[in-house]
Amino acid sequence: MARHAFDEVLERLDEALSSPALNRAILIVTLFAMAGHFVLTWVGPDMLGAYRTADIPFYALFILGGVPILAQLVLKFLRREMGADFLAAISFITGVVLGEYLAASLIVLMLTGGQVLESFAMRKASSALNALARRMPSVAHRKDAAGEISDIAINEIEIGDLIAVFPHETAPVDGTVVDGHGSMDESYLTGEPYVVAKAPGTSVLSGAINGEAVLIIRAEKRARDSRYAQIMNVMAEAEQKRPRIRRLGDQIGAWFAPAALLFAIVVGYLSGDSSRFLAVLVVATPCPLLIAIPITVMSAISIAARRGIVIRDPTVLERLPTCQTAIFDKTGTLTYGRPELVEILPGADVDGAHVLRLAASLERYSKHPLASAVLAAARERNLPLDEVNHASEKPGQGLSGRADGHEVVVTHRNKLAKTDPAIAALLPETTAGLECVVLIDGDYGATFRFRDQPRAEGSSFVGHLGDIHHFKKVMLLSGDRESEVSYLSELLGISESLASQSPEQKVAIVRAETAKAPTIFMGDGINDAPALAVATVGIAFGKESAVTADAAGAVIPEASLVTVDELLHISIAMRRILLQSVIGGMVLSILAMGFAAGGYITPVAGALLQEGIDVIAILNALRLALRHDIDADLRAETFDEL
After folding, report:
1. What digits encode the pLDDT tens for the residues 119-152?
2. Does residue 366 belong to any structural domain of this protein?
3. 95 burial type by CB count under 10 A (0-12 exposed, 13-18 middle, 19+ buried)
4. Where residue 142 sits, what CATH number does that domain have?
5. Where are the beta strands (DSSP E) in 378-441?
6. Which of 185, 313, 329, 614 is catalytic?
7. Which residues contact 409 (CB under 8 A, 6 or more apart)?
8. Catalytic site residue 329?
9. How many domains does the chain have?
10. What phi and psi, each to the nearest 5 degrees, are found at residue 180?
């Protein structure tokens, strides 16, 4: 019981000493103290009478900043945590004892600066839940028995209530349409790239964005039990279970710091010379860990930014080269996320281009999700569009009108099966993807087939992951239908794929794969946010969702798989230079420790030597910022080549 209470006190004290506000305050005091030191040194003895006056700002720093550092040192000792910052704290004390006040203040600067940057990154990473909450409406419009509409809080919605969803609003609960015809964007929730038509009897998911029409839905669930709330709950759980991965500096410092301290103690004991103890400790100060790592990481972040990549969590750059499994969402990630007309199957003795021209002329007056794909196909073929008379669109029935002297109807297979079985018998067999049927003057004109097309560089990218970046496993994970997912997997050469996956299932799969090996997950929808949060590295693709970006460690706004390849190369280059700086600096420090142990290096000379080691490590770290040859070597392909 007493032990538990003691641990709780230590935990609270650690939280207070590690607070971002305290670290920011110490950082500011350190900068002012160093500036004051240099000003007083420049003013010189002519005004103040002694060079030691320049150290006065450091005394204030050591009182305000040194006490928290000493307290953290005691806490780490009690917890048996000996990382790079532990040895840095001891070096700070050593610097004060030796009178190396500038070196001691630099250590304070490095410690507090790194903690401020880390807390900023964590604050950014945990903002996804806030973004999810902001996207959900707080008010719903309930329709009573008299037909009157009144605003209520969404937590007051009861099962069976009639709720009005106005144009461009977000559906507050799961339900069923009872009145109105329109469409909704559910792509962030289901992973399917198409706007979904809504009519009486069709289901609605909370979080779906309404189109241009007013829809009346009957609530099937309360707000807290609806689809969007489930995603928020999964996201909250993912945030709580986000794996805490140690920084590279801590990993190296975990063994270097206690080894260096033990070596210094042994040297001091055997030699009986305390100056040797101090000299060994000074040259062992892990400045390459504390300086070279931030410089290298910031250089990599800068390079990534120039390539249009936003690094939200710098540890992503450390983890990427270690990843062995890559998991991708389908829609908008490996595909373009929009339907394209990929095949025209005309009837006997019918010109497909002629049918496309007439259909596109009519589709100008349609709000159907496939209308834009038909118009885009006509523009690509430079087909002139005709004037249309008597255009009419009935939800669930189709689009009709008169163009170039012909009666044109754009409808679907199920409608024809009921109204005109003879024409329905002429239709080609159904396949994966979407389709529509065009009738010309009451006769079969053509069947248009649509697909969410794979990105041109998709096949090269998937092959590139194994050949160049040594990924051992590539998976496709999607909320889309089995037929669509299987088609894309086969086309891109992905051997393992799973379709119709909910956000909860995605999280479970990504978490399981991450437990086996470091894993990348890349997605673009709100339904991908929880999986992005639990992966070793989460990459948000595209600029459609702030929620997805907040859950990821890296964001690629201009969706391109070539840019993903650039990110991989940047992380590899960063890790290589980082390891050179850190390990090289450690090797030089170890050699210097040997000379200091032999009495060949005094504490003062050791401090100067350590500064030289720091300069070498920093200059090597700066090489990354000066490089201009970090480019993707991925070749984009067209599907004619596949």
Report:
1. 654 454 445 455 556 677 889 999 988 888 999 9
2. yes
3. buried
4. 2.70.150.10
5. 388-394, 398-403, 406-411, 434-440
6. 329
7. 398, 399, 400, 438, 439
8. yes
9. 5
10. 105, 155
